[in-house]
Every structure is written in structure tokens, then in C-alpha cells.
Amino acid sequence: MLAQKNEWTVSEISFAIRQLVETSFSSVRVKGEIFGAKRADSGHWYLSLKDENSLLSAVCWRGVASALNVKIEDGLEVIATGRITTFNGRSSYQLIIEKLEIAGQGALLKLLEERKQKFLSEGLFDSAHKKPIPYLPQTIGVITSPTGAVIRDIIHRIRDRFPCRIIVWPTLVQGEGAADKIATAIKGFNSLATDSPYRPDVLIVARGGGSLEDLWPFNEEVVVRAVYDSVIPLISAVGHETDTMLIDYVADVRAPTPTGAAEFAVPVKTELYNGLLTTDMRLKNAVFHYFNEQMQYLNALARGIPPLEQMLLENQQKVDERSERLKLAFINLLKDKVHLLQQSNLRPFYVDNLLQGKKEALKNLALRLESVSIDSVLKRGFAWVSDSQFRTIYTTNKAKSSEKLHIRFADGIVKARVTERDCAIQGDLFDNF
Q1: pTM for this prediction
Q2: Which CATH number characterizes residue 92's domain?
Q3: Dist. CA 88–CA 85, nearest whole Å
Q4: Are residues 258 and 396 in the same domain?
Q5: Residues of the domain holding 398
Q6: Which residues lie closer than 8 Å to 154 by C-beta, 6 or more apart?
Q7: End of a domain among 216, 239, 267?
Q8: Boundary (domain end) residue, out of 244, 267, 290
Q9: Residue 121 and residue 47 in one domain
Q10: Which residues are 202's β-sheet partners?
Q11: Spatial distance between the Cα atoms of 337 and 330, rounded to a whole number of angstroms
Q12: Which residue among 15, 180, 205, 420 has its CA within the 20 to 30 Å range from the CA of 165?
């Protein structure tokens, strides 16, 4: 109780009330719905918590706000832990928030659905962004708590199936700061050089089962976006098979359990070995059957081919026959040449007789040609009548129609003119042609 005093100054009463409030409410947990949240340029958050009947002003300083697991936003039902203090400048009181958590699973589910719809609309869950998991990774990066059954189960399962290098990035998987550390681990693995022997071929983000509040870091936006931006294929294995976090939607593969993630990451070595043996046996059998079929085919072809010895004998017989024919042809050729040589001795007499006969024949042809020539005919008393153009006239009608005639005799030509009276012919003697 405040001490009784006759008179108080404004500052005194304000200070007294502040001491009373801060002493009585030095640590409180207040449940309410965030209303009117606003972030100042300084990084501090100013908001109110409300229920059906009342409104409580609150402030969250920048250092505290940056470490919160819960994103401050209107409509979110939370439980705020802090202390009540007064603000002397306005005679009001407010809650200084030191810790903030979601109030109840119903509120968490509502927030989870809102975030899911947001990421869906941005395309973060599209299958087009899913990357295939390498079939035989040489290095596997595991992001989980370094203690507990999860990491032991993953390592044990990988070693049983197909041993390979496992690099563990230890991190918190629950509580304050867990989401940021998980996102940092994913980004850290991706920042390694592509030719680094420590860069994983596939990532596994895992933790065991728990309540929705325990698994909440895997629903935080910073984790979802880190998984979406990961160049390295990523397998999520959070909680049990019935638990589905937002990281499961954005991951390239979602495993029902951490052990299942190890099974997705590597095949079973013995199954691969047995499969190779089976394939090798099938290949050998196929090759054997192929060559056996080809051998049978060749044998069938061989049965249709005569024996080599027989073919050689037949060809040798043909060679002998052609040799005999060649000998006979050569002998006949020699005989023909000898005969020609023998005939060549009589050839000069033959040529002389032939030339003499040709000369006599030519002489006879010349005499016959001379006997039928124009000059020979004219010498026998005939004449050749032609017109002025020396075209032969064969009839009297043709002669009457010509004004001038040429009459050729053996010793010259007479030029004549045809008159109308009785078609008389007058003419003069031409020089001989």
C-alpha cells in the first residue's frame, strides 16, 4: 500500500505507482490476440494484446524481437511473457515482452495453414522445382541434433545399406533460434565449393517426433525458403509419418521417418550386387545362346557348300582342260601363220595379174563411155537442137514456141530463128564451142 501523504506531486505519484506495478507484476504470462502490431524504424515492435473485453498495450524491444521464434502479426493468438511497467508521459501502463509463443495448437494450425497457402501461391511447393536424388551419393550431409537416436539411426541405416561419407552439421531442432540455425546449416552446405570433397551430394534434415510446438521450427519461413533455395537435393525427415511440416512440402523428397530418409538416400549394396550378378548371368546366357544359334546357322550353310578338296579337284580339272585347249589353239595358230607365209611367196604374180585385169576392164569402160559421148554421136551425122538457154528441144511444138534455136553439129553451132511462115528456120553459123 502506498504511504499516506497529505500532498503528492505528479512525479511522485507516478513513480510510486510505477514501483507498485513493477513490483507486483515483475513477471507475468499474458494470453491474448495480437492487434495493431507495428514495427518502428528503430526495430522495436509496438502492439496490443486483446481479448473479448480488454486491450493491453505492449512493446517488444529490437533485441528480443530479433530472437523470437514467432513472427509478430495481427490476429495471432499468443502467450506473452514479460513484465508490466508504466509510461509516465501518458499515465499508462504496458507489457514489456521478453518471450512470445503461440497460444494453443488451434492457433498454431491456423497459422500453419495461412503460411501454407502463402507459400503455395508463391510456387514454393511446385513439383517443377523438385530435384532428383542422386542414385549413389558419395557424401551425405545430415542436419540434426548431434545427440539422440535420430543421428544414430541415420548413420546405422546408411552403413547397413551402402556405406559412404556422412557429414553432420549439428544444430538445434527445437526451441528458440532453432529455425535460424537449421536455415544456416542448409545455406552452409550449399556455400561449399562444388569441387570440395566435403560438399554433400544430398542433404537430410531430420529430427524425431514431438508436439506441434516442438516441431514448429520446421514451419518457419526462414527454413522453408532455405530449402527452396538449396542447390543440393534435400530430403526432409521430421517427426513421425503422420507429422507433416511445411519443410516436407518444399523438400525434394519427404521421408516418413529419419530411417526412411537414409533409405531414400542410398540403395542396398547387397541388392545392387545381386542385381549385377543376375544381369551378368543373363548377359552371359544371352551371348551363349546367340553364338550357339550363329554356329548352327553356319553349320547349315556349310552343309550346302561342297568339300574344299572336291572344289579344288574340279577347278584343277578345269585348268587342265583350258591348258589343253590353249595348246591346241596355239598349234592351230602356228599352222595358220605357216600357211599365210607359204601363200605370200605367190603373191607378186597374183598382184600383177590382178592389175592387168583391172587395166583391161578400165580400158573397155573408157571405150564404151567414148562411144556414147555427144561428140561421138555428132560425128556420126547427128545434130543437137536447143533453145537460147541451151536446153535440149525434143519436139517440133517446143521448137515452134522458141524464138531462137541453137543447132550443134560436130564441127560447130548454127544459130537459127523460127519465122511464122511455115515455121521457116533462118540462121547463121556460130563459132565452135
Answers
A1: 0.52
A2: 2.40.50.140
A3: 9
A4: no
A5: 383-429
A6: 142, 144, 166, 204, 206, 258, 259, 261, 262
A7: 267
A8: 267
A9: no
A10: 140
A11: 11
A12: 180
